[in-house]
Amino acid sequence: MRNNNYSVAVIVSLLLHALLLVALLWGADFSMSKSKQSGNTIQAVVVDPALVNQQAQRIRQERESAKKAERDRLRRLEQQAEELEKQRQAEEKRIRELKANKLKAEKEARLAEKERQRVAAEKQKVAEEKRKADAAAKVAKAQAAKAEAERKSKQEAARKAEQERQRKVEQQRKAEEAARKAEEARKAKVAEQKRAEAAAKKAEKARIEAERKAAEAKELQRQQEAALNDMFAGLEAETEQRGGARGQFVSDEVARYSAIFTQMIQQNLLVDQSFSGKECVIRMRLSANGLLLDATEDGGERTLCRAAKAAVVKVSQFPMPEDPEVIEKLRAIRLTVSPE
Asked: Which of 9, 23, 137, 286 would disulfide-bridge 88, Cβ 3.0–4.6 Å?
């Protein structure tokens, strides 16, 4: 752009100089033509020297006037050329300034565009960072909420697990306590059974010894009776009468001791409300001194019978009368237990 403006200014200057040269040549031709014409006229009219002088003077004045006019014209042309040169230089300066201003404006525009782009990029970067920060904050918030929910869930699970553990510990403690009591009861029962077995063995031994002694006494009595049959033959009627009274005595004693046995069993019976109105028949086998040898259910409500049998085992030994015949009746006895 700058080279084009400079070329235009050079062309304008050359044109101005060309015009000035043409004008000078044209002025010279005009002067020569005027001179030739005057010369011809002088040659044609050679009459009056004064007129010639006047004419010469007029020609000189005209030439001076022409020269002056030419000088003025040349001066004007030079002034115009100078003005044009000044205008050209001013125009070139203005063009240079415009170009500089344009370049400056373009540079400033480029800088402004770069700044705008930088600001836009910075804004975009800030917006992207904000978006990422918002997204990260949202994710962090969601993660925090999830972590809090998981923490509460784990805390609740831990609380329930602790409750369950405490419940199991309590169950285990109760089970251990029940097992301990059951073991104690078992040991007590085993000890009681051992005592009962020892007593039963002792009673059985005593029974065998008593039976042996009774058999000996009976044999002795038989021998004595056989020896005295003849002596007491007349007393048979009296003996028969006394035998009837003896039978009644034995029946009464058996009934009395049966009532005592039943009362002892019911005193050791673990009574339950469901036993009301129910009864159980227990058949017992005793030794001669009242030691329990065996007890079996002989009819009745099963639950009550189990409790009655346990009560019989708990008594383990019953009081016996001194009369051998009554003892013999009581050794295999059948009792009815009915809780009051």
From this structure: 9
